[in-house]
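Recap slide: NarX-like N-terminal domain-containing protein, sequence and predicted structure.
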Amino acid sequence: MKVRTKIILVTGSLALIILGMFLVTWWVTNNQKNDGAIINMAGRQRMLSQKMTRELLEGVSADDGIEREKAFNASANSMRVFNTTLNSLMQGGRSPCLWRWITRKVFPAPPCRVRHCSFFRMFNLFGRSTGEKWRG
C-alpha cells in the first residue's frame, strides 16, 4: 500500500471516530435534557410530604378554629401541588413550577420500563387517600 493511501485511511478513520464520539455525546445529552427538572420536582415531592405533615399537625394541635382552618387549607393546597406534580412526573404533562400555578413545566411521559418501579407503587399508596389509582 502506498503511503498516501495509508495516510488517507488513518485520517478517515480518525474522522469517523470523532464523528461517532460527537453523535454519541449528542444522543446522551439529548436524552438527559429533562433530568435536572425531574430531579428538582422529585426533591420538591419530598419537601411537600414533610410540609403536608407539618401543616396537618399544626391543624390538629391548633387551639383556635381560624388557625386550624388556615393550616388545613394550606395542607390541602400542598396536597394538590403534590398530586399534580406526581401525575405529571409519572404520565407526562404540566406541573406547577414552585407555588405559582400560572408557570408550568411540561414533562414527557416516562418510558415503559420505569412504570414498575417503587415510584409508581408510592403513587398507588398516595392515591388511596385521594381516591385515585394509577392504571399504567
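The mean pLDDT is 80.
Helices lie at 3-31, 35-61, 65-91, 118-130.
(End of recap.)
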